[in-house]
Amino acid sequence: MHEESGRKGFMASIGHRWREFRTSLAPQMKEINFTLGKIKKSPLSIVGIAIITFFAVLSALAPVLAPPMPGYDPFMMPQEKPYGPIPAPPNAVHPFGTTPFQYDIYYGCIWGTITAFRIGVFVVAISLILGVIFGGISAYYGGIVDEVIMRVTDVIYAFPGLLLAIALVLALPPNFVLDLGVWKFETPLTSLDKVLISFVLIGWPSYARVLRGEIMRVKNEDYVEAARAVGVSDLRIMIKHIFPNTVYPILIVASLDIGGIVLSAAALGFLGIGSPQGYSDWGRLIALSRDWIYATPQNPMEYWYLFVIPGLFIFFFVLGWNLLGDAVRDILDPTLRRR
Amino acid sequence: MEKPLLEIEGLVLRFYTYEGVVEALDEVDLTLMEGETLGVVGETGCGKSVTGLSSLDLVPPPGRIEAGKVILRKRDKKYDLLDQKDAFLRSVRGKDVSMIFQDPRSSLNPVYSVGDQITEVLLLHRRVEMCQQILQEKKLSRFDKYIYFHILTNPRSIVVRFLSNIPIVNLFRRRINSLAWKEAVEILRSMRIPDPERVMGMYPHELSGGMAQRAVIAMALACNPTILIADEPTTNLDVTVQFQILSLIRELKAKYGSSILYITHDMGVVAEICDRVAVMYAGNVVEIAEVHEIFKSQMHPYTKGLLESIPRAGHPFKPIEGTVPTLIDPPKGCRFNDRCPHAMDICVKLKPKLVEAEKGHFVACHLFGRGLA
Q: How many domains does chain A have?
């Protein structure tokens, strides 16, 4: 009897804690509902979200939709023997046909989705982090630090992005070695890694600059002064008052950039830089059939499936991210969202 | 009443700009007595606002305080704010001395609701008090009790900061937050804001100007500061709202017993709210007197000119001749000498000191200097 009541008390206290936790979430739930309502009102952002969701599902289901050959790297496209140079049109075995040397286009497109996500999300995430760090340092310390960081970004801006990317890919060593004396880190760099690294190196300055400009603007706002006047510490002002007011523009730029990065990666792939021959990568897939794009004077579009299908994948992927970027702006920008 | 609460002594402030050194404040002396409202009046750019900011040691770069003292009396001890460490200054700002800025809407952070911003002030300065209150009032589990005692002994403990980020466990933080929220609602209610619960959840751009200014005043008064520095709090409001805010400030002053340093250029407001007035011109205090003396028997030629230049129906408009000198290269001697109708030789050579011409009436002018007139 006593035991039971004691136990009940314990359970009740857990229940109490849980209920209080749930009621405390009510404001957040309200915000989420508000956001969903905002999204529902703009059909284009729904389309964007739908496209990106579709690609996400596609990449998640890749092992089911296009089962890799056991014992092989799943990102390498399977090749049909004999490795004849003439592409095959869509058929029962190869729904999207095959490229020259008989790589399966369907397989390449499905697994290429994962590659595209990897390129876009990785590059943008790392450049965003670097941009926030360097932009923040630049704006916070000012003076000589600011000058140095901004001149570095100027140097990077001075070159055409794609050309600089090509140069960097070629200049990067085959092995990445970090030797700190006590701790040594070594990893081989695949050609795709090199593309990612060079895109990051080229990508961070734009975020750093936008963030720096925004912080410079917000730093002199009255509410920052007001926060200082009620005794908020500098670090807290930076994190709590300045950062939320400055981060939205770069988040929006970032979500728009994911598509652009994939497009540039495809361009590099088309030039033969980046992923190795036979790797599931949309740009690489088109590069494989470079010589077959214009077939014969009688029927120039005879091998349309070689470039139209991977091209459509790239097109929709980029379109999806661009539309999603608008949605992100609607969701995130606090001055727009309450209007 | 007759105890000085904030004393500004010989404050020299310069801005090092590209065009040159701006001598924004030149040996400013001001004393704010306990329980009084001291008006600081003057034209734009005469150094009113930076005087307010310096009394919190908040002068923005490229400004630098070159000399002088800002002495705050806190629990019968005197502190020179310009010598103190950052941590001490932060504990003073918002708690003992707080400030209301000119534009209410831009002095609220657009990404946080009004409630978030008022509770932030409360949580910054009154966390310990709130823990005590919770310990007294509520039945708590052993864990929560331990945490609250921990906060009491060590308010900035890393353990507590870490635990407060884990859901379910951080119930203790939410109790403090909800207590702060309740207090903030009460503060807003005392600001005569209708339906304060709703306003707490609103964002700055959803508020009207008067409402936003009330929220800003609520933020400033959240911790019952002994000194309130009001930097033209009614300038951007229309006249009816201005009147409401003024009567609110007067009411709150009576209720909380704060002293107010009221910075304005509006003589009407001065007449309405101030006990004493300090008139500033080009970085100098030129006259300090009781409010009715300023209006009836003002001494300094600038104060006279200022009062005559108030436009009135039926009277010819009489502005002060000339313009405010640039403070990069201010006139030698008295800074008003090139516009003064009574200028003498000595005015160009020697800077007049602020002297007590009559009891409680200070003036910095050679006309009233000892034996120099």
A: 1
Q: In this structure, is residue A21 part of a structural domain?
A: no
B214 part of a folded domain? no
Residues from chain B contacting residue A251 (CB–CB below 8 Å)? none
Question: Is residue A27 predicted with pLDDT exceeding 60?
Answer: yes
Weakest mean pLDDT among A175-179, A333-337, B267-271: A333-337
A-to-B residue pairs, Cβ atoms closer than 8 angstroms: 79
Q: Measured between alpha carbons, how far is A130 from B68 in angstroms, rounded to an integer?
A: 44
Give me the residue from B90, B93, B141 closest to A13, CB to CB. Answer: B141
Within a domain: residue A166?
Answer: no
Instruction: Tell me, yes or no, whether B210 lies in a domain.
Output: no
Domain harbouring A143, CATH code: 1.10.3720.10
Q: What is the mean pLDDT of residues B281-303?
A: 87
Contacts of B168 in chain A (CB under 8 A): 17-18, 21
B91 & B240 share domain: yes
| CB proximity under 8 Å: B 129-148 to A | 141
CA-closest candidate to residue A319, choices A39, A42, A43, A51: A51
Mutate to test the interface with A, among B111, B120, B181, B263 (most CBs of A within 10 A): B111
Name the residue among A167, A128, A121 with its Cα closest to residue A260.
A121
Identify which of A21, A27, A231 has the shortest CB distance to residue B125: A231
Q: Classify residue A174: in a domain, yes or no.
A: no
Mean pLDDT of A46-60: 92
Q: Which domain holds residue B275?
A: 1-104+226-373
Give the H/E segment covering residue A252: helix A243-270
How many structural domains is chain B composed of? 2
For all residues of chain B together, what is the average pLDDT?
Answer: 83
Structural domain includes residue A180:
no
Residue B211 belongs to some domain of the structure: no
Q: What is the DSSP string of B72-127?
A: EEETTEEEEGGGS-HHHHHHHBTTTEEEE-S-TTTTS-TTS-HHHHHHHHHHHHHH
Kindly determine whether residue B93 and residue A241, on different chains, have CB atoms separated by under 8 Å: no
Angle between helix B171-190 and A2-24 (nearest 10) = 50
Lowest mean pLDDT among A132-146, A175-189, A312-326, B273-287: A175-189
Rounded to a whole number, what is the distance in Å from the CA of A144 to chain B's nearest CA? 16
Same-domain status, B366 and B277? yes
As for the ipTM of the complex, it is 0.81
B245 & B338 share domain: yes
DSSP B31: E
Residue type at A142?
G
| C-alpha of A187 from chain center | 23
Contacts of A245 in chain B (CB under 8 A): 109-111
Query: In DSSP terms, which residues pair with B78 in a beta bridge?
Result: B73
Instruction: Identify which of B95, B174, B219 has the shortest CB distance to residue A24.
Output: B174
Residue B194 clears pLDDT 60, i.e. is over it: yes
Contact residues on chain B for A334, CB-CB shorter than 8 A:
110-111, 203
- A interface with B, Cβ–Cβ < 8 A, is 13, 17-18, 20-21, 24, 27, 220-223, 225-233, 241, 244-245, 334-335, 338
Q: Residue A4: which pLDDT band, with cuts at 50, 70 and 90?
A: very low
Percent of the residues in chain A that have a pLDDT greater than 90, as a whole number: 22
